[in-house]
Structure formats: C-alpha cells, structure tokens
Amino acid sequence: MTEPKRYTITAALPYANGPLHIGHLAGCFLPADIYVRYLRAKGQEVIFVCGTDEHGVPITIKAKSEGKTPQEVVDFYHRQMADAFKTFGISFDIFSRTSNKVHHETASDFFKVLYDKGVFKEDITEQYYDEDAKQFLADRYITGTCPRCSFDKAYGDQCENCGSTLNPSDLINPRSTLSGNKPVLRETKNWYLPLDKIQAEFLNDFIESKKHWRSTVYGQCKSWLNEGLKPRAMTRDLDWGVPVPITEAVGKVLYVWFDAPIGYISATKELKRADWEKWWMDEETKLVHFIGKDNIVFHCIIFPAMMHEYGGYIMPTDVPANEFLNLEGQKISTSRNHAIWLHEYLADFPDRQDELRYVLSSIAPETKDSDFTWKDYQARVNNELGAILGNLVNRILVLSQKYFNGIVQPHADYKRDPRFDWKELERTINIIEQLTENYQFREAQNELMNIARMGNKLLAETEPWHLIKTDEKAVGEILNLSLQLLMQFAKTAEPFLPNTAARILKMLNAEALDELPANHQLGEPAILFKKIEDEEIDKQLKKLNSSKEAPPHASLVPQKEEITYEDFARMDIRVGTILEAVKVPKADKLLQLTIDTGLDKRTVVSGIAEYFNPNLIVGKQVCILANLAPRKLRGIVSQGMILMAETPDGNLEFVSPVAAILAGAIVK
User: Fold this and answer.
1) Which of 59, 468, 487, 562 holds its CA 20 to 30 A away from the CA of 507?
2) Cβ proximity of 225 and 199 under 8 Å
3) Distance between CA atoms of 492 and 38, rounded to whole angstroms?
4) pLDDT tens-digit series, residues 505-525
C-alpha cells in the first residue's frame, strides 16, 4: 500500500453489560488513543470511532437478573463508559452505540444486500428450546457440564474454565438458565455465512498477504484456516437485537457478531454523513483495528468476509491485537470482582489519569500477557514519573524563576550548544516515531523517558546552581537549552501523557509556540506528580482482596531424587514460539503444536487441550526440551516437550520468558 491519504482507526466496541476495567484500557483503548494522537500531531487526516455493543444474550441475562429492560441496562452502561472514557482522555471522534437508529438501518442493509446476492445458506437445524419459557435458547442461555474439563457451569458457546469453544450439543446434562429445566430440541431455520466457501475464494489469500501482522494475530488466523472454517449462523432466535430484515425471519435478530463490527461503519455515518464512504471504501484509506486477542477471529476473518461479500469495502491494513493484562498475578475476573474498574480509579485518584496511562503503557501486553500490581504502579509513578520527569520540570522552572524571574535568557544557537547533543535528541524522537508507527508503544514510551533522562544529565553535568556564582550568562544559556528541551519533550509526550504535556506547556506559557524566544515570560512552576503513599496502595489492595477469597496455597510435592550437574547439562532447553496449534482428532487431551525452536520448525504433541484454547496460544513463547527422543502419539511423531507449571488450583501455565526473546535462546 502506498502512503495513505487518511486513517480510519477503530477500537473494539465495549460490551454494555458492565463497567470498564484496566484490562480493557491496556488491551485496545489506550494503544489506539496513543496512535490516533500521534497521527493528529503529524497532521494526518484521521477518524477514531468506537461505541457500545448493545445487543446479544449477555445483555438480556443482565436485564433479567436486575429486573430491568435490556434498553435500561445498555443506557446505563453507555453513559458510564462514555463519561469514564471522556474523563480518562480517550479521544474518540465519536462514541456511538449499536442501539441507534442509524446502526439498525446500516446493519439491516448489510444483511439485505448479502441476502439479495444469494450469499447466505439457509438451513433448518435442531436447536434447544425451553418449553416453559416458550423460546429458543441462545448459547448463553444454556449451561451444562463441559465435556473437556468437567466444569459444571460451562456455557453453550464456551467453557470459561478451560477456554474450550463449544456447541450447545456438546454439553453434558444441558439445562436452561431461564427455567432450570432440561431443554428439548426443535427445528428452526437460520441463515448461515458460508465461511468455508469464502475461505477458499478469498480468506486464504487475504490472510496469507498479512504476514507482517503480529505473530499472535497472523498465527491465530492461520490456525483457524488450517482447521477449516465452517458456515456460521448470522441470525438468532431472540427478541433483543437488530431484526432480520426479511419476511421469513420474523421474530429473529442478527447475530451480535454480525451487527457489532458494522457499528464502526454506522458510527462513521453519524460522524461523516456526507462522505462516510471515503473512510471505508477508498483504497487510499488505511484501516486499523485495535482489539484484544480474544476478538481476532471476528475482526480478521468474519468481518473481512462480510465486507468482501458486500463488495467495495477496504480490508484492514493492520490489526495490532494485544495479549491479556492480569492483575496481581491472577486473571482479571468480572464475575469475581477481581478487577480495577476505570470509574472507581478515576474517583479514587482524581486528576491522575496520566499516571495510569504511563503504567499501563510501561507494561503493555503487546507480545505476551503482562501483570499489573499496585506496588509496581506506586514504584513507577514515584521513581520514574516523579523522580525523573517531575523532578526535571520542577528544577528547570524553579531555577528559571529564582535566577531570572521566569524570563527566558538569550542563546545564540541552542541547537549547536556543545553542552548538549541535540542530534541525539532528534535521533531519539525519530526512534519514538518509528516505534509508534509500528505499534510498539511500550518501547516508544521508554524512549520518551530517555529524553527526560537527557535533561537530568545536562543539569547534573553543568550544575547551574554552582555556576551561577561565576558565570550568570552561561547559566542563562543552560536554562534556555533546558527549557527548549522541555518544549520538545511536551510535544513528543502528548500522545502518551496528554495531560502532563498540556501542564508542561502551560508552565512554559508556550501552548501556541514552537520554541521559546528570548525574553519570553514563563508561567508558574507546579508539582507535576504527587507521591503515591503506602496508605493509598494498602487501601486499594484491601479493596481488591475483600471481594474474593485468598487463593489456596500449592500443596508441597516431595523433591525428586538428586541428579548431577552432568544430568542437567544433557538437557537442551530452548525458548520456542508456537506457530500453529490444533486439536488432535479423537484425543480430548492432546494438542498438536508447530513450534519454531530457532533450529527448525517441529511438531510437538502436548496433553494440554483441556486447559487451553488452541487459537489463543498461537504466538506464545514457551520453553521446550528440544533433545527429548521422538515419540509417536496418536500416529503423530512428537519431537520435544514443552515445560508447564501447575497452579494451586490444578490448572497449567506455560513456563515462558518474562520478555519477548529470539526463538532458540538457550535456557541455562
């Protein structure tokens, strides 16, 4: 693709049945906002669209449990999310909702065009029906025992205990969540998107052209395609959603994952009524979806399939999906209230939006799952934002006030001042821009803080507080140079720390300036970052722990008999990357993995199918015992063994490097 004329940036539509938590921010909203702010600063034509996803079964379940209508539920959470996003500073051009009239019209039109073109496959199948409630049951209205892990509260579409994707017919002892009774099977007609046919005609080549995508994204897509796509119903027997716009489907609504991504298009129509098409149907527009890895299949396979069949739409150029953010060593769980809710953070830490932005970007789960802890939050705010950046800004402004009454002193040519390497600063800014272009926001922010470190180094080496006694002119030049550095920092920092950048420019009295002229009057110094006290962190930990029981301790397993160093040295343990993962037919516990060991790409059969969804572990880095003798399992030759750790509750976790590392690295 040539240099785009404009950018359409989307962030995954948050589901309107609960509040936002920090995992949502780290997963897509914060990286999307950084990228959009960067593009705007570069003068690019860009729109940033999002909105609440307000259809689907979880909404109706929430409404029933609270004695409300679905509309009342989505109205409440839409307002709460919109307020939280605005306060936090996520700079959407529009934050719409899928219950809006324009969305219903757009989604209906989309279905009707595909229907009239003969895209859909009509099929009559048997679906579960609740005779007491007198309605067909969507997947989430059916629970039962998971056939993979025996969890007795699995849903009809997924087991949240082991992550397995299910069909309602897979469940053991299925029951209706409406009446508690065992449902019966009844025939019903639905309209299916023939993904198998579209895969052969379009999706295989489309995904093959996206090898530049993140390995997790590309690998997960390849895994789905390798398994072979199957037709998927785009209609549901529900009364909450976008009505299916054909007479044969009275009483049915569009599948939520058919209408939800169309929400990006309908939001654009609201925002750009006259020329919305150029943002979605012009090949000179770059389309980028920011999502979490659990939404990859919908944004990279199903939505492109829909747009291809409609005709005329551009395809996503990039889908920089993030991994998951954990909290205090455990997965974020809304059902267990193990989460940090955005609206509560904003109430407990008023005017500290940038502190959370900074910490979440510092630990962004770009290549692997990461972990947020309150102690790490405290340390990063106090020791990095406060001690490095806040201290620099305060010293420069205070010294300028003390020695020159806040008046910028002249400098003949600050960019050639031998006391500071301005070319190194320019190189750093270029690196930040390149990293941001490549969606490497964590590294970009680290380089940003290096600019502040440069400023502190300048002051430490020149010591203007001592030099003022003998050379006032030199001190004026040093402070001029330092102030120009702060200007550059603020401009570069705006996508990452927008409030901080604005406050620095206000202190410099330079909101409308590109550089500070001699005799310019500075504003008043102020403390940028307040210290996070232990009491504040203890309060948050107490709140978090009060909502759940402490996890059980791991039972002690007796140590095995001693081995010699030579025994250990014989083992060749390396870091490998999972390229593909598929279930072994007729073997519930086995996954067939293709692993890049740095030496080769080899097959490993592992008994972890009960614990992991194969589509969600592609791109994962693991430790592999590479020189284990080959062994045939279910007719497949397995060349190695991946290392796993058992958690206190009996689940398995990968033994993985803390940071991304080249495949083939030796574990010593």
Assistant:
1) 468
2) yes
3) 9
4) 999 999 989 999 999 999 999
Q: Are residues 134 and 188 in the same domain?
A: yes
Kindly state whether residues 107 and 124 are assigned to the same domain. no
Total structural domains within the chain: 4
Per the structure, the complete domain to which residue 584 belongs is given by: 565-654
Backbone φ and ψ of 2, nearest 5°: -70, 170
Structure tokens at 229: 């796509």
Identify residue 282 by its one-letter amino acid code. Answer: D
Query: In angstroms, rounded to a whole number, what is the distance separating the alpha carbons of residues 615 and 131?
Result: 36
- Are β-strands 591-596 and 45-52 bridged in parallel, bridged antiparallel, or unpaired? unpaired
Query: Do both 133 and 203 map to the same domain?
Result: yes
The whole-number pLDDT of residue 554 equals 35
Task: For residues 620 and 606, give the distance between their C-alpha atoms in angstroms, rounded to a whole number.
Answer: 14
Pick the more confident residue, 72 or 57.
72
The CATH number assigned to the domain holding 582 equals 2.40.50.140
- Asked whether residue 463 falls in the same domain as residue 582, the answer is no
Cα–Cα distance, 281 to 287 (Å, whole number): 10
User: Quick one: CA dihedral 419, 423, 426, 428, positive or negative?
Assistant: negative
Q: What is the pLDDT of residues 175-225, one digit of tens each?
A: 998 888 999 999 999 999 999 999 999 999 999 999 999 999 999 999 999
